[in-house]
Amino acid sequence: MTPGSYTGMAAELAQARLMALKSTIFKVNLQIADIDHGYYADHALTLARHPSETDERMMIRLAALALQAHTLQGVCNGDGTLAFGAGLSDPEDPDVSLTDFTGRKRVWIEVGQPEDKPLQKACQKADQVVVYAFNHAAEVWWKGIENKLTAWTACRSGGCPRNHPSHWPAVGAAQHAIASHHPGKRADPGR
Question: Which residues, at least 6 apart from 179, have a Cβ–Cβ distance to it below 8 Å?
C-alpha cells in the first residue's frame, strides 16, 4: 500500500462517516373507531423510522397517535393537525403532537423514558403532555421521575384510564400523562 492510497482511503472513510443514514419511510392507513370518545376516522400517515429507532418504538409512536387521535375532535373540534414529529432526529420536537389552527401545541406526546428537563420544557410549550413509557423498566422510570413532575407548579401528574401495563398487553406499556395548566384553564390528563 502506498502512502497516497492510504490517504485516499482515510478520506473516503471520513466521508462515509459524515454521510447520514437515511430514515426508512412507511405508509400507514389507520382506521380508528374509538367508541369511548365517539371518534371515528381514517388517517393516511407517513411514518419515518430513524436509523437508530427500533421497530418496537416506532410501533409505540403509531399506537400513541391512535390512542390520542380522539383529541383532534375533543380538543380542537376537528380543526387541528395530529402528526408525527421529528422524533429522534430532533429532541426539541415531540414524537407526536396535536397542533390547533393557530399553531399552538395542544397535546405533546413523548415515547420512551424521557428525562425530567425535556418534559418540563414540553409542559411550557403545550397544554397537555402525555408520555408512553414502554419496556420492562417503565415502572421504575415512572417511580424515579414522578416526584420531580408533581413538584412543578405548572404541571401535574395523573394516571390515565390505561395507566397500567395490563391495560395495554400487546405492547406491555405504561402510560402517564402530565398536564400543564394555563391561567384560567385546566387540562385533563385523562384525555
Answer: 127, 128, 129, 155, 156, 158, 186, 187, 188, 189
Relative to beta strand 80-84, strand 126-134 is unpaired
Task: Report how far residue 149's alpha carbon sits from residue 146's, in angstroms, rounded to the nearest whole number.
Answer: 5
pLDDT, tens digit, 9 for 90 and up, residues 69-120: 999 888 888 889 999 988 777 878 899 999 999 999 999 999 888 888 888 8
C-alpha cell at 54: 427500533
CA distance 124 to 110: 14
Give the model confidence (pLDDT) of 106-127 as tens digits: 999 998 888 888 888 888 888 8
Contact 93, 151 (CB under 8 A): no
